[in-house]
Amino acid sequence: ASCRAASPPGTATAPPAADLVIELSQTHKAKPDLTNLVFGTVFSDHMLTIEWTSNGGWQKPHIKPFGNLSLHPACSAMHYAVQLFEGMKAYRDADDKVRLFRPMLNMNRMANSAERACLPAFDRAELVECIRRLVQVDLEWVPKSDSASLYIRPTFLGTEPSLGVKKPSRALLYVILSPVGSYFSTGAKPVSLWADSKYIRAWRGGTGDCKMGGNYGASIYAQYEAADYGCQQVLWLYGDDHQITEVGTMNMFLFWNNENGEEELATPPLDGIILPGITRQSILELTRKWGEFKVCERYLTMADLRCALKEGRVKEMFGSGTACVVSPVGRILYQGENLHIPCQDDFPQLASRLMKELTDIQHTDYSIEIHTRFISILSPLC
């Protein structure tokens, strides 16, 4: 149902989301304590599954009780990482309405990842509708809190039952839901980063701009090495000039006075290495709308950062992403030197303002102007 119009010619397409089959769970799990939520460890009562085969195309979508998957031992997702995922959220406002935050941007990115992984095309609007229906079924799992939300994890697997390295003839698209609070165990406090060129997150011509599981699995070793150095995240560098790319699993922003003395918010360009984050795009759109300082997508190196810190030109540095929204950076360990980033009162001024603006959009209908500007953001579920 959620995957039809974009299918290749000659391939059977899925029925509309109106044909979705719903099997409600006979038991309901207890809702978690929102004050002690560990990210991604608690799941709702139901899940969405949609199967695809090269002969039959997309099958009917099913919402059914949350449970384990049954996969062939030769499944291509497990052997050759023919797999991708997305991360998005549903928010509840003070009037008890629930919204998805810019879901079509997630679908666009997911379609790009699917093409790169040789997985079948899908109708993005139909998939959003199926996800909307899933959230409606588990509506009580959307936290009634402005500091928590329901994390939505669409996942797409190649389920080819063969050890041949080839485009899969079978696939499974499924969606699970997880109520979440703060991504970091320390809460909304500045994070510390380990910057080293020893490990590379992505490279040009690779899959750095796709949300594939292999990108994340390969980063775990470096994450633990960062912890050994007393840092929470890795600042990923690229090339001989140590270009700054991403912060852990987040996009990176630097707010500074640039080389020309201009007040500037800068983030690396989407050149195939950087994941096109939905929060990243929202921050660029918001700050360009403000028109208060220069907003630029440009290359930044560690030499640029060190020089700017030495000359007192750095104002703030922060990461952005669906899980954390905005996360200030307080310290970077680079070549044995601790580089201290200005962080007034734990949450610096611009990061704090962006956090408020974005959460206001996600949780409230606080501004007609914002509502109009981000009409694609506000998608009422009820």
From TrEMBL:
CDD domains: BCAT_beta_family. One of its GO terms (cellular component) is mitochondrion. The keyword Amino-acid biosynthesis applies. Its cofactor is pyridoxal 5'-phosphate. One of its GO terms (molecular function) is branched-chain-amino-acid transaminase activity. Transmembrane segments: none annotated. Its EC number is 2.6.1.42. It catalyses: L-valine + 2-oxoglutarate = 3-methyl-2-oxobutanoate + L-glutamate; L-leucine + 2-oxoglutarate = 4-methyl-2-oxopentanoate + L-glutamate; L-isoleucine + 2-oxoglutarate = (S)-3-methyl-2-oxopentanoate + L-glutamate. Keywords: Amino-acid biosynthesis, Aminotransferase, Branched-chain amino acid biosynthesis, Cytoplasm, Lipid metabolism, Pyridoxal phosphate, Transferase. Signal peptide: none annotated. Belongs to the class-IV pyridoxal-phosphate-dependent aminotransferase family. PANTHER family: BRANCHED-CHAIN-AMINO-ACID AMINOTRANSFERASE, CYTOSOLIC, SUBGROUP IIII AMINOTRANSFERASE. NCBIfam families: ilvE_II, PRK13357.1. Catalyzes the first reaction in the catabolism of the essential branched chain amino acids leucine, isoleucine, and valine. This is Branched-chain-amino-acid aminotransferase. It comes from Oncorhynchus kisutch. The gene is BCAT1.
